[in-house]
Write a structure and sequence with these properties.
single chain, alpha/beta, Glutaredoxin, five-stranded mixed β-sheet, 5 strands, globular
Length: about 180
């Protein structure tokens, strides 16, 4: 199955939320409502002048999905050239092998595609900044970073990494560790 066919099998964010259990849907909605992007980031999003498709593998119960999916939804609201579709991880593990982090396919996985469905890059699970903190291995820093991330305090970082992939400044954020 081609990546375009996979994309076409995906569902839109509103449908994803409708299918989501109430407690998780409320978390997604709260993250979206509380999301604040700087003026500079909003302007970078507005300046994207080419169609971008994003194939997202996500599950509603996943706290990392709850932290990052609303960022992409906000970006798509700011610039309608950004379009995305969501698929579950289950059933697509073989496809996700290419995007493993720490030995296994992770969610969320965002695969950024140009208008011809050629891959621009991918964001896997968490921002590089958090991966760097995790790699240092100092537990107090990891605990604080994970808590802040899941509370939506890294939205700006996530948006910047997404934009860098779209702009071609970064090929892959994530991938095999």
């Amino acid at each position: 199955m081609s990546i375009k066919e996979l994309y076409e099998k995906g569902i839109k964010y509103t449908e994803f939320l409708k299918k989501t259990e109430t407690k998780y849907r409320q978390e997604f909605e709260k993250h979206y409502e509380d999301l604040k992007l700087s003026q500079e980031t909003q302007e970078r999003i507005e300046k994207i002048a080419k169609k971008v498709f994003v194939l997202v593998f996500a599950e509603a119960w996943c706290p990392d999905c709850i932290a990052s999916l609303p960022v992409l939804a906000k970006m798509a609201e700011i610039n309608n050239l950004i379009d995305f579709a969501i698929l579950p991880r289950e059933g697509y593990e073989d496809f996700l092998e290419k995007y493993k982090y720490d030995g296994k396919p992770r969610i969320p996985t965002f695969i950024f595609l140009d208008e011809d469905f050629k891959e621009l890059g991918a964001f896997v699970e968490i921002p590089q900044m958090l991966k760097d903190i995790y790699a240092r291995g100092y537990q107090p820093d990891i605990i604080v970073a994970r808590r802040d991330y899941r509370q939506g305090k890294y939205s700006e970082v996530i948006a910047s990494e997404f934009i860098e992939i779209i702009e071609g400044q970064s090929k892959t954020m994530g991938g095999e560790k």
